[in-house]
Amino acid sequence: MRVRYTIVDSALARVLVAATDAGVCAVALGGDDAALAAELRADFPRATLARDDQALRPWADPVIACVEGTSPGLALPLALHGTAFQLAVWEALRRIPPGQTRSYAQVAAAIGRPTAARAVARACASNRAAVVVPCHRVVPAAGGTGGYRWGAERKAELLKREATGSTSR
Questions:
Q1: Run of H or E including 63
Q2: What DSSP element (H or E) covers 19?
Q3: Mind listing the pLDDT tens digit for each residue in 113-143?
Q4: Contacts 24+ apart (CB under 8 A), 14-23
Q5: Which among 135, 65, 144, 149 is positioned nearest to 96, based on CA atoms?
Q6: pTM for the full model?
């Protein structure tokens, strides 16, 4: 498999956007380009990786707009790999409107697995596509923002930006 990627700036973090010929396969947030590229290598150990800033710019721009809270959602082709359960969770997450949240239990119920809240949390933690698959919109029922693969502070900021953006439209 061939994976092309770019790393661009946003107001929140450096953003890595990676894609196969079929679509976006990863979006990661971080502070260091080398660490982002290393994470991509770890996530796709058998892939041939190539940086391709020019070709991926049209896909990076809408991701950045989403990170910055200036776009309500994304309509990019996706090439996500996961178990059937993970794919079902990730699809349910994509149906959560910007500016809104759901609990892990609510997502579990939405996919017809009401007792699988912990498995939903694991599927969120396994998500490789930040903001494209908006796992930041899933929070604990007890309150707070909960964990986030790319940092709890970033999760809180994404939620804040979406809430602000959704009320100003």
A1: helix 53-67
A2: strand 14-20
A3: 999 999 999 999 999 999 999 999 999 999 8
A4: 15/60, 15/63, 15/64, 15/67, 15/130, 16/40, 17/56, 17/59, 17/60, 17/63, 18/44, 18/49, 18/56, 19/56, 19/59, 19/79, 20/79, 22/77, 22/79, 23/76, 23/77, 23/78, 23/79
A5: 135
A6: 0.91
CATH number of 2-67: 3.30.160.70
Q: Looking at the annotation, which residues are catalytic?
A: 135
- Decide: 81 and 35 in contact? Cβ < 8 Å: no
Residues of the chain with CATH 3.30.160.70: 2-67
Return residue ranges of the chain for CATH 1.10.10.10: 84-167
**What is the structure's pLDDT at 68?**
84
Cross-strand bridge partners of residue 27: 17, 129
Query: What's the CATH fold of domain 84-167?
Result: Arc Repressor Mutant, subunit A (1.10.10)
